Amino acid sequence: MGGQRIAPVGTHGPNYEEILLYKKLCKENPFMHPIHIYYTAPPPERTMQASCASGTEGRSRRYVVESNGEATELTILSQVNCILNKLSISNFDKLSSELLKIEIISDNLLEKIVKSIFNKAIAEPHFGEIYSKLCLCFGNFNIQFKRFLLDMCQSEFEKRSELRQSRGNIVFIGQLFKAQMISEQIIHSCLGKLIDEPNEENIECICKLLEITGSKMKENIDENFRKLKSISENKLVVDPRHRFMIKDLIELRQNNWASRKTNQPLKMI
Known about the structure:
Elements: H1 16-25, H2 73-86, H3 92-100, H4 107-123, H5 128-139, H6 143-159, H7 163-178, H8 184-196, H9 200-213, H10 221-232, H11 240-254, H12 260-263
Helix pairs in contact: 2-3, 2-4, 4-5, 4-6, 4-7, 5-7, 7-9, 8-9, 9-11, 10-11
């Protein structure tokens, strides 16, 4: 990063709503060309996150620094992982701001932080939206963050070693698209590669990706569904379970991407 410090303006760091405001004020898509906000000089003190010992919430935080004034990468990563383990919808603004205040002392450290976030995202796909919002916050202030993140998503997608890992990555890619961190072209590229090899694992990934991104896609959506319907009609390729999975996805689109399950009235017992 050329020795220049990259960090958010302000003492407490921006929250998610402020990040969205930056997007509206930017003439170009800031997720393709991330906003860079540089300190003209480093802050007077760069203390690190507090110890994550239980019982510290609501009290003054104890900061960990080395004797030379800079925390080691190991200390920083430990604090990052501690924050990630506590991250939730209710405390997102507070903890994401704390993460944004951490000084990135090297590209190597940044890559390790991205890896930590990425691993959490694909291991916990139900929280994919939260992690994509976190990446949105980071990506606006550090272009290298986005490069590392996309490289990891691509590498995991191409590897596709086991279904659980692949589904987690697909969910995360879909959520990154919804957060406008990646382009629609990347989604179409993933769909194209999955449709070209219509095995059971890939069909599940296709359905999951379209379930997340379909309502936001503007191009080639008809073509993707035409190919998917054609695949579902081939009983030599698709078993009944995955055929019904495709059928449910088609019905979801016909219902304007509103799940019938969420629209059903509660039944009296």
